[in-house]
Amino acid sequence: MASRVPLVLLACGSFNPITLQHMRLFELARDHMHQTGQFQVVGGILSPVSDVYGKQGLAPARHRVAMARLALGNSDWVRVDDWESKQADWTETVVTMRHHYNQILEQHQNTAGAPQLKLLCGADFLDTFKVPGLWRDDHVAEVAGRFGVVCVSRGSLQPDRAVHECDTLSRHRNNVFLVREWVSNEISATEVRRALRRGLSVKYLLPDAVIDYIRRHGLYTWESEQRNKGAVLRPLAQQGAPPETLSD
Amino acid sequence: MEKSNQTKVVLLACGSFNPVTNMHLRMFELARDHLQDTGNYRVIKGIISPVGDGYKKKGLIEASHRIEMAKLATESSDWVTVGPWEGQQAEWVETAKVIRHHYEELLAAERNKDEVDTVKIGKKRRHEDRDGWAHHGRTGVPQLKLLCGADVLESFSVPNLWKAEDIAEIVGRFGLVCITRAGSDAWKFVHQSDTLWRHRKNIHLVKEWVTNEISATHVRRALRRGQSVRYLLPDPVVQYIREQGLYTAESEEKNADVVLAPLQKYSEGCN
C-alpha cells in the first residue's frame, strides 16, 4: 500500500439538488481507482457551480452547498467546497482544478508527498471535449495530462469513443480512467425537481436530510423552475466548456 | 385531504429482500403517489414481507438477517413497516396465504377497534362483514393490495411457479399494484393472461420514469467483491451487513443445487 499514489477526486456540477446518484459516482470511482492497484484515494471534493452559470431552475448556491453538506455529512472521505460557488463569474474547470491543487500543495508543503488531483466526470462531460470551439487545446492537455480524468459511464454512452475522437485526450489516454457503472441508476436532478414541484415523493432518491431542507426552505417549485428560463448558459455566452463535470 | 369516499389501502410487498435496497423502498413511494393521485385511495400502510428460508433461492441468507435489515431500512419511514410472519415460517408459504394472513390481521385490528365503539356502529359493521370479496375497504377495513415489480406479473405465466387459483385470488380478491419501467409493456402480460385480463380493473400499473435498476443480485456481487454499496442501500443496512459479515462467496453458494420451493411443490407428480 505504501507505494500507491495518493489521490483526490474533484467533481464539479450544479448539484441542483444533490442526489444519491452523485454520491454513488464517487464510490464507484474510488473502488475503480483502488482496483488499479496504483492509487489510494484519500479524499473527494464536490464543488457546486456558482449562480452566474445561468442554468434554468438553478437554486441559489448557498442552498445547493447546504444540501450537499447535509448529504455528505456522514461521508468519511468526500467533502463539499464552496470556493467555485462563490466566484463572481463562472469558473472554467481547469481554473477550479488549479485552485484545488494549489490548496493541496499548500497543505503538503512539498510536491513529492502531495496527492494527485483528478477530475471525476460523467461520459457526457467527456463528450464535450470533441465539440469544436468549446475547449482550448492547452486546457484539455492540462486537465487530462497534468491532472487526469476519471470518467464513470452509464451503459449506453461510449466514453472510449470520446477519448478516441479527441486527439489531445487520446494522447493522454493513460491518464483517462474509464469506470463502468453496471447498474443503471439514472436519478437525475431534473427528474427530482420535476417530482418535487408536482408534489410527488423523492424519498430514497435523496438523503432524508436534504428532503427536509428542501421542504423547510420551500425550494423547487413551479416558480423556481422558471429561473434563468431562456437565458444563455454563461459559458456558452462566452464560448467555453460547461463547468459541470457531473451533469444532472 | 381525507375524503370519506376514499378507499383505505395497505400495500404488501413479498420477496427475498436479500438484501433490501433503496429500489424496494422506492417502489412503495411510487405506488402510494400513484394510488393517491387517482383521488380514490388513501394509502395508510406498507408492509415488507421477506420470504422464509424454505424458499431455497440461491444465495438466500437467513430470514432473521433479512428481516432485521428491512427493519433498519424502514426506520426512517413513517408508513412502511416489516411483516416478519412469512419469514418466520419453517416452510415456504404461498404468496396468496401470506396475503390472507395479513388480511386477517387487518380484520382483527378493525374488530378490536369496533369493540371500543360498539355502541355507535356495532350492528352496522356486523351487517357489512357479510359483504362479498370485492367490497372490503369501503367499510372500515382497508383493502390489501400486493405491491410488485413487472417481473412478478411476468412470472405468473411461468409453468409451476404459481397455482392458477392463487393468481385469481390475488388479483381478484385483493388486487395488484405493479411498478413498471418506462418502455416496458406490462399491459402485454395482462392482455396475454385471461385471468389477469378478467381482473384488469384490479391491476394498477405504475410507471417508473427514472430507471433505477438496483438489483439485490448486483448488490450481493459488489459486496462479495469488496466494492462499495453505499447509497444503493440505506446506511444502517450497509453497516449491519459489515458488522455481521453477510454476503460472502460462501453465502452465495447456499441452495446452489436446490430446486426453488414453489417449483418443487407444484411440479410434484408431473415428472
From TrEMBL, chain A:
Single biological process term from Gene Ontology: NAD+ biosynthetic process
SUPFAM superfamilies: Nucleotidylyl transferase
Reaction equation(s) it catalyzes: nicotinate beta-D-ribonucleotide + ATP + H(+) = deamido-NAD(+) + diphosphate; beta-nicotinamide D-ribonucleotide + ATP + H(+) = diphosphate + NAD(+)
Domain of life: Eukaryota
A GO term, aspect molecular function: nicotinamide-nucleotide adenylyltransferase activity
CDD domains: NMNAT_Eukarya
Pfam family, one: CTP_transf_like
Cited InterPro entries: Cyt_trans-like (IPR004821), Euk_NMN_adenylyltrnsfrase (IPR051182), NadD/NMNAT (IPR005248), NMNAT_euk (IPR045094), Rossmann-like_a/b/a_fold (IPR014729)
Record pathway: Cofactor biosynthesis; NAD(+) biosynthesis; deamido-NAD(+) from nicotinate D-ribonucleotide: step 1/1; Cofactor biosynthesis; NAD(+) biosynthesis; NAD(+) from nicotinamide D-ribonucleotide: step 1/1
Domain Cytidyltransferase-like stretches: 10-194
Keywords: ATP-binding, NAD, Nucleotide-binding, Nucleotidyltransferase, Pyridine nucleotide biosynthesis, Transferase
GO CC annotation, single: mitochondrion
EC number from the UniProt entry: 2.7.7.1, 2.7.7.18
Organism, as annotated: Anguilla anguilla
Family per record: Belongs to the eukaryotic NMN adenylyltransferase family.
Name of the protein: Nicotinamide-nucleotide adenylyltransferase
UniProtKB/TrEMBL annotation, chain B:
Superkingdom of the source species: Eukaryota
Gene3D superfamilies tied to this protein: HUPs (3.40.50.620)
EC number(s) on file: 2.7.7.1, 2.7.7.18
Cellular localization per UniProt: Nucleus
Family annotation (CDD domains): NMNAT_Eukarya
Chief localisation class: nucleus
GO MF annotation list: ATP binding; nicotinamide-nucleotide adenylyltransferase activity; nicotinate-nucleotide adenylyltransferase activity
Signal peptide from the UniProt entry: none
Cofactor annotation: Mg(2+); Zn(2+)
Ranges for domain Cytidyltransferase-like: 12-221
Annotated pathway: Cofactor biosynthesis; NAD(+) biosynthesis; NAD(+) from nicotinamide D-ribonucleotide: step 1/1; Cofactor biosynthesis; NAD(+) biosynthesis; deamido-NAD(+) from nicotinate D-ribonucleotide: step 1/1
GO cellular component assignments: nucleus
Catalytic reaction equation(s): beta-nicotinamide D-ribonucleotide + ATP + H(+) = diphosphate + NAD(+); nicotinate beta-D-ribonucleotide + ATP + H(+) = deamido-NAD(+) + diphosphate
SUPFAM superfamilies per record: Nucleotidylyl transferase (SSF52374)
Keywords for this protein: ATP-binding, Magnesium, NAD, Nucleotide-binding, Nucleotidyltransferase, Nucleus, Phosphoprotein, Pyridine nucleotide biosynthesis, Transferase, Zinc
One Pfam family it belongs to: CTP_transf_like
Alphabetical GO biological process terms: NAD+ biosynthetic process
Family: Belongs to the eukaryotic NMN adenylyltransferase family.
Record text on subunit structure and interactions: Homohexamer. Interacts with ADPRT/PARP1.
UniProt-recorded name of the protein: Nicotinamide-nucleotide adenylyltransferase
Source organism of this protein record: Anguilla anguilla (European freshwater eel)
